[in-house]
Amino acid sequence: MKKKQLLLAFTSILSIGALTACGGNTSADVEITVYNWEDYIYNGTDDNGAKVDDSIIESFEKKYLEDTGKTIKVNYKTFSTCEEMYTKIKRKTVKADLCCPSDYMIQRMQREELLEPFGYDETNKKYTTGLDNVNTYTSPYIKTLFDKNKLSNYGVPYFWGTMGYTYNPEVVSKEQVSTWEFQWNPGTELKKKITIKDSVRDTYFTAVMHVYKEELDSLKNQYKVGTITAEAYNNSLSEIFNRHDDETLRKAEEALKELKDNVILEVDEGKNDMVLGSIHVNLAWSGDSVFSMDEAENDEKYLAYSVPEEGSNVWFDGWCMPKGANVEASKAFLDYLALPEVAALNMDYTGYTSPIAGQAIWDLCNEWYSLDAYANEDGTNDYTIEDCDEVDLSYFFEGTLDDGVEAKILIPTEERGRQFDAQYPSLDVITRCAIMKDFGEEGNEKLHAMWGDFKV
Amino acid sequence: MSNSKVVDNMTSIASRRSNHVKEPRKIFSIPYGVFLVLFIIFPILLIFFYAFTNKEGNFTLDNFKSLFVNGQASSTLKVIGTSLGVAALTTVICIIIAYPIAYILANSKFNKNKVLVYLFLLPMWINFVIRTIATKQILEFIGLDSKMYPWICSIIGMVYNYLPFTILPLYNTMLKLDKSQIEAAADLGANPVHVFFKTIVPMTIPGIVSASTMTFMPTMSSYVITDALSNRTIQLIGKQIESKFMLDQLNVGSVYAIIMLILIGASVIIENIFSEKKGAR
Predict the structure, then answer these.
(1) CB contact under 8 A, A87 and B247
(2) Distances (CA, A) of A84 to A23, A93, A231, A420
(3) Which has the higher per-residue pLDDT, B231 or A252?
(4) Same domain as B161, residue B45
(5) Chain A interface, Cβ < 8 Å to B
(6) Does B145 touch chain A if contact means CB atoms closer than 8 Å?
(7) Residue A159's beta-bridge partner residues?
(8) What tens digit of pLDDT does each residue of A67-85 get?
């Protein structure tokens, strides 16, 4: 099955190449180029790769024609790492109207004045023109996060999530993976059965969490007993999380070097290796973890997801307009993506969580995860209300649902720590997650030098 | 052999022509001239420009310093050492495997229709990235997990990919072997081992040298193979160039490119010394 998918992936890559190769001269009125992560948008295919529907791009092109009477051609290009995207945009090897960097990279591109502003009204917390759906449907949590990090004017959120371990509960216990220390002391049997990311920032922060474990633990205790507020806790955590002074770098490098016998570096293969069972723990973005869990279920294997207790990363990818972009058409595309129905399609396809809230997304979430989703065909259900936890997601859905709908969902206790928790982390998890900040030019250089040193 | 005849014909045609019309011949060289400037000379100048300048474009030696003087020196040397090691190991194994194969191919009656030669060249018709992914699967299937044995897997992958490049030059030399010398040695009482080491090997030295360079030079930087088959644990010089450029560190990346140019230049010079000694070419 996996092999078939691999084959499909190859053919789709080849066909994308062919499409872009011959898509040079079109007679569309407007043309925009969208530069996105690989496999990060609904392409109209089902699980087997057969084309069943319009892709998001195709349906947008139709919608645009309906709304404006003008034809539009969307060129779609992909990249596999944020740094690659940055270099190509900066050197103008790719001329894109929209690109989709991660949090810290948005800050960096903004700092280097590579981006066009969207026009954000700080006082009313709204985009001024052309992004009505984004204004209406974006989750209040994500909005606050963007405002707090001063990203709203240059970025429109696309997907978000946390970082943690996907693990095989048959081999690894939940306790083991509830701390980053696991990487350093996996026990002999799990050596080289763990993968972490061959991506500077994502692996560096795990080392920082290891180096400052005591400080983090004491912070957490202070928060637990109530001496500091959730916000103060998160702020201090965020400061530690983003440390990159010389001493931290040196300690982190030492810590990383200790990892060499325990872990394998990967960027894309890990999520599939988890399904195949060739590894038992994978440091993963929540969306990839959902992918692994879904795929493994097809083979009757049950994987789980855990965000370590010391704290972790809450990340997001957002759309940005490089200088010289077609602002009007780009906004139209983003506003289309922000429709809850469209966001739902993307979520279903990628396994990542959309920052769009809204009733359609809430319904989808219930359809997938609530108690009713476990009903058998004859109407009976293996779980009863007593077997369930009531999870409150109002931090995310507040103010975007239909009148009288409460953002509370019943999840079978046995299913906790799986797809649902990966897609919608509880408030508790979010409180201990920090955002990656740009380290500045000098900081980046030092970090990359350290990383290069560690890798050889 | 028919090939060389064709080439002979062409050169004679060309020389005859050139006697009559000199101008058109220059025109024919223009496409190559353009190609040479655009894709070889200009990029090399660019590499040197980047290597000796900083981000603002001012002259500096910091890029070299950052790789050889400061704290990174040990990792730079390690990368160079690893690259040379992987290349040398691959080359030696390739020659050991290819030599008998080439000899058999060159002397086999069955080979009249070149079926065997084609069998060995066949994998080259498939793109090497696809071949490498397939190699990984096959190795895992026979129990060689690339996570556990990164070096063994990478070397197997390298040898598999570059074996045809080793076989071909050896095969070409062995086709031209002077059979009468071998027969004479045997007639004069040399045992098979002596025949092999005293006549066959010396006669095939030019083949061995060019096979070695054909294998050694590209393996130093074939990081796609090591990336896939060592799970990124073996870092070749090519990988360094790639990752520096990806991180927008064009200047340091260019220094690595120059290091590679020097290493390749050195192996070409060594090849020439050997070839001249044996009076080949």
Answers:
(1) yes
(2) 23, 11, 34, 32
(3) A252
(4) no
(5) 81, 83-84, 86-87, 90, 192, 198, 264-266, 278-279, 445, 448-449, 452-453, 455-456
(6) yes
(7) A317
(8) 999 999 999 999 988 888 9
> Other CB atoms closer than 10 Å to residue A160's CB: what's the count?
23
Closest listed residue to residue B169, CA positions, set B104, B264, B95: B95
Same domain, B183 and B268: yes
DSSP letter string over A86-131? HHHHHTTSS--SEE--BHHHHHHHHHTT-EE---EETTTTEESSS-
| Minimal C-alpha gap between A391 and chain B (Å) | 40
Using the structure block, give the residue that is written with the tokens 């009125």. Answer: A29
Residue with tokens 């079109």: A26
Shared domain check, B78 and B42: no
Strand partners, A434: A313
Q: Give the integer Cα–Cα distance in Å for A12 and A6.
A: 10
Domains A23-161+316-355 and A162-308+431-455 share a fold: yes
Residue B35 lies in domain: 2-51
Top-confidence range, A279-283, B51-55, B196-200: A279-283
Phi and psi at residue A437, in whole multiples of 5°? -110, 155
User: E-assigned strands of A38-95?
Assistant: 72-79
- The answer to whether residue B115 sits within a structural domain is yes
Question: By the CB < 8 Å criterion, does B75 face chain A?
Answer: yes
- Sequence-distant (6+) residues with CB within 8 A of B2 are none
Same domain assignment for residues B16 and B151:
no
Q: CA separation (Å) from A381 to A256, A341, A369, A370, A371?
A: 47, 28, 13, 12, 8
Residue B254: CATH number of its domain = 1.10.3720.10
Asked if the C-beta of B235 comes within 8 angstroms of chain A's C-beta atoms, the answer is yes
Burial (CB count <10 Å: 0-12, 13-18, 19+), residue A415: buried
Q: Which CATH architecture has domain A162-308+431-455?
A: 3-Layer(aba) Sandwich (3.40)
Identify which of A378, A329, B225, A169 has the alpha carbon closest to the alpha carbon of residue B239: B225
Mean pLDDT value across residues B241-258: 89
**CA distances in angstroms from B160 to A220, A331, B91, B167, B231, listed in the order given:** 54, 51, 11, 11, 18
Which residue's structure tokens are 């077997």?
A387
Residue A432's contacts (CB-CB under 8 Å, 6 or more residues apart) are A220, A233, A234, A237, A307, A309, A310, A311, A312
Cα Rg of chain A (Å, integer)? 22
- Model confidence pLDDT, tens digit, residues B143-192: 888 888 999 999 999 999 999 899 989 988 988 888 888 888 888 888 88
Whether the Cβ atoms of residue A286 and residue A196 lie closer than 8 Å to each other: no
* Distance between CA atoms of residues B127 and A290, nearest Å: 33
Task: For A224-238, write each residue's pLDDT tens digit.
Answer: 999 999 999 999 999
Q: Across the interface, which of B79, B232, B246 has its CB nearest the CB of A87?
A: B246
Superfamily of domain A23-161+316-355: Periplasmic binding protein-like II (3.40.190.10)
Q: How far apart are CA B78 and CA B237, in angstroms?
A: 10
User: Whole-angstrom Cα distance, residue A137 to residue A357?
Assistant: 6
Q: Are residues B266 and B204 in the same domain?
A: yes
- Cβ atoms of residues B102 and B174 within 8 Å: yes
